[in-house]
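TICKET #2291
ISSUE: user wants both folds in one file
ATTACHMENT 1:
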Amino acid sequence: MSELKNDRFLRALARESVDVTPVWMMRQAGRYLPEYRATRAKAGDFMSLCMNTELACEVTLQPLDRYPIDAAILFSDILTIPDAMGLGLYFETGEGPRFKKSVNSVADMDALDVINPEADLGYVMDAVRMIRRELNGRVPLIGFSGSPWTLATYIVEGGSSKDYRKTKTFMYNEPEAFTRLLNKLADSVALYLNAQIKAGAQAVQIFDSWGGALSHQAYLDFSLAPMQRIVNQLITEHDGRKVPVIMFTKGGGQWLNAMADTGVQALGLDWTTDIGNARAQVGDRVALQGNMDPAILNAKPERIREEVGYILSRFGKGNGHVFNLGHGVTPEIDPDNVGAFFQAVHELSAEYHEN
């Protein structure tokens, strides 16, 4: 594999010195880009795009050709694992992800098997290998998966949900069976992320999109504990480099200390948590990633720049900050505003890294 020409992102995750704060953006390969929309139209639908190695590689690289981004993230979906478990993922226009089968009983939960990533999700590993080859050391490649709790909500609800009523009912009524489901998902995620690392991912992120919907103890038992189970199984070094893990719980600001205790290298923050307060809490145990409100990208470029400056000032001088949004970029955003965002991060952050 080629030597990295830009390793700011990995250096920041290791809390090492950098010249400017590295930046990438969740969903950076997405519908806000006209070139992405054209490639998706060529693929036919979202899952066909995910499963086409060349096109998945193409859309992963598109934002890097347009912007000065410090990391690429694999183009895929968090729901590939339940799809590989035989639940039949599909996407309804305007409704988001759906499953042909949902898990409606303890017997349904127990019937699910841990996945074999190369056999069941070989198309993802093929994409990782091609993306690494095409990147040719430009920037690091991030692999990812959904968290067990987040995957469980989709599996039980049969798709998206506003209140996770069915999932929480299962969780509270059948905690032992629900924990078995979470453990199967955790073991599948660990195998999946390790396969991505072996294929070429240089860092991995666990997306706990819906952990913030849980009560305090339920989060610790049913979201954080299975994520800890994943972290315990992950490859920590590959190709002579450490492989950092980023844990991101949307709405998880109250659990930062517990998350930092898992042994991950970085915590992702959504925009509801002040990054300065988060840094004071976790100290030098982990790097922090985040955390601008994606909606600010709808504002004028000067307002975007002002917000970037504010977040940088709240983190303050020193190492261990990867700039990102607090959640994914949304489809209606003007690509020029995204360019202003990336430019502002690099231009305004230099003063925080003076030696």
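ATTACHMENT 2:
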Amino acid sequence: MNGVVKTVLLAVATTAVAGCDMSFDDPSMVQDLRILGLKADPPEFLGADYADLDRDVRISVLLADPLNEGKGGLECLLRACVLSNDYRCDDNDSTVVLAKQPCVDGSNTFQVTVPADLILATRNADPSWMAIEAGIAQAIDQGVPPEIAELGKSLYSGVAVWVEIVVSGGDHELRGLQSVIFSPENPKGRTANTNPTIAGVRLNGQVGGTVTEIPFSPGESIRVEVLKTWDSKETFLLPTYDPPGGVATVDEYMTFAFYADAGDFSPDTTTDKPPNIFNADPEAEQKPVDLWSTWTAPAADEVPADGVRFWFVLIDGRGGTDWITMKGVMKDATMDVPLTVPTVP
């Protein structure tokens, strides 16, 4: 089983630029050009012959450029390959360029096609698949009937084709990786993953709606809760090795990332991921998980001229992603939090 299905973000500085802090000591603070989110739609293809056709996918890239590094124009290169150990498609014989076009501060979407031969080559290079294939051949050599030996493939649950995103044109080059999963329907009844959906943002535990912007006073601490729709957290099936041919039922976990270009979030991420997603005890007493973060507003003289920008990203643990952006505005002592209706589920 290829278990590496999460989104990986990599930032690489190609030039030394004064005042450009790439250390990310505070990951929630967005001070220069950043990739904040990557999304594939759909995030997973499911079927017995998933490598028989080219597959069309929409890849979205959430960029933040608070210093307008890309004033001369940013470019996004999307490419895929049988990923090497350095997690790059540079000088890789299998590399396929999927898209190369301008991109901007904000959300960018690219319609790309993943070739069938790349899907097949990625599967054939996957260590889990290679082990299964070798085991089947060895079993047949030892006299096991082929139809019985082929049952070894029932352990296989899919492979990730990685799309590399290279963002250039700013003061430094950014790289990111987004998985697209290709899986057999194994075990039977398994369904393909879908992206989660952010329903809105709620402040200070208030009920009855969600905010359209975040009003704040300098130095104020605000509880920020990102809400998902009721169907975002999915239950999925995986084949088991012990016993062979068994079925494991696993719940997705939700991870929320909080970003702003001023002030401070603590923590910068929250998650309901259990210590072991395969061995959660349903009868054990579960401690409630806090999925909110506290944002401390900046001092008045540190507020950007056009207000504070917020980015909230939701990741489902299987490569599914959603995000929302929002503005923060200074308020006076009598200003109330604006709410939308109806109540979000």
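RESOLUTION: both attachments delivered.
EXTRA DETAIL ON ATTACHMENT 2: The chain has three helices and 20 strands.
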